[in-house]
Request: fold
Amino acid sequence: MNNEDIKTLKNNSFKVWAVFATSIGLVMLGILLVKIGMDGMHRISMQFFTSLPSRRAEEAGIFTAWVGTLWIMGTTALIAIPVGIGAGIYLEEYSKKGWWSSFLEINISNLAGVPSIIYGLLGLEVFVRLLHMGESILAGSFTLALLILPIVIVSTRESIKAVPKTLREASYALGASKWQTVWMQVLPAAAGGVMTGIILALSRAIGETAPLIVVGALTYVPFTPKSVFDSFTVLPIQIFNWVSRPQAEFLVNAAAGIIVLVAITIVMNGSAVLLRNRWQKNVKW
Amino acid sequence: METIRIEKKMKTNTEKQHEIVSAEFMPDENFSTKRKVMNKIETKNVHCWYGDFHVLRDVTIAIEPNTVTALIGPSGCGKSTYLRAFNRMNDLIDGFKLEGDVLIDGKNIYDKQMHVNELRKNVGMVFQKPNPFPKSIYENVAYGLRVNGINDKKVIDETVERSLKQAALWNEVKDNLHKNALGLSGGQQQRLCIARAIAIQPSVILMDEATSALDPISTGKIEDLIAELKKDYTIMIVTHNMQQAVRVSDKTAFFFLGDMVEYNNTKEIFNNPQQEHTRNYVGGRFG
Reply:
């Protein structure tokens, strides 16, 4: 074998390895989706979405769960979006670059890697007990908001950083204040990236179970919440609940619940991708 | 103390008498002193630093209104820094420091009382690379009005039209005012940036190599525009194009390594430079 043959061989074997590595993830995901689809697809019906939880598996539904998920996601978004964008703007536009801002930067990135159960314990101590929010939607939302804040902050910073300096200069040169420049030029130009980050953050939050169980989300809720002070359950907790039942019929329900959750996540991530592509097409510098 | 005051008083009285006399006998001269053109822009012993780097040393210049002044010199000589001192754009850079006086209409623009946004309303700027906002043509011109609290649609409509006409762009865009400005050609974008700058009626316009990213035809249009705008504004340009400096400017300042080497009528600078460095630079021997 001459030198060229060895090179070709190396090249090909690396290619095979790369294809294999990519396939593992895809195949696993495929198997998972097919298995769940086979188990739960026939259970998806109008009745499944409109029924309360029940002791009889065939009558049980995810009504309280998806309504609770809507409440939790809405409230979480209301808390995390303004705070996250505000912090991102401060760090990128206002704070002086120095050891303090690098310190903050490192810590925010670290926070994104903290296990979610830790956030649950923090939420239990601070929101449920210290601030007397009780085991409510509000406490759960604050906890999830903390959990996704690092993602929102980092993505806001990144997209603000990508806005060219010349745009800011143009605005300042016309007598605009910092606030006007940020609000009327920088944020709209960064909006695509910021929104993508928010959607990705929320699609992470929608699947979180552990922190919500810690702050006291109920596994059985026979009513839908009327306000943010009510107790609640969410889709992943409902699924968790069904999976832990011994009866096989409940596993079908769990599979159907997972289909709904996966569908929501795919739609959210898909719209994030769409948004990003659209934005890149529209804005050229 | 007492005597000094009396002396002063007496002096004032005699001065007054003189004035009366001169007013009676030489009304024309008195009139002309009143009308004597005040310098629009003046810098006195201006020094600039970026951190420890001393980028400008002791620049003193006086500029008359309704003139075009060209700042020339090799890259890194400090001419852009000098230009950006007049709308305090350098303030955006961490570690920038300026010493000395920069006067516009006799007022020191680095005074504590001077509001930087007010200043920038009065001193418009056009940048090297056309930088329209990623919005409609109309909104680009309207932005300066909006950030300065003008929201009356009629006023904005009129201003947009007047500014675009003044920037010689109106005929090309009047049917597409609400199209995205990023769809315009480079030369059109730069004229839009000029329209945007003059919409808020500044009295000074700074142009930082405003034509360096444009083709010769667009450059020609902008140069014609500068000659036209001179009637209403005091203009300062930074340029690497020496023919351009000759074509459009009345006065030229040559900068070299942070020093303002020579400042004179453009003709003098190019035909009869007094300094060795200037002669070499305008003669194309370096730079």
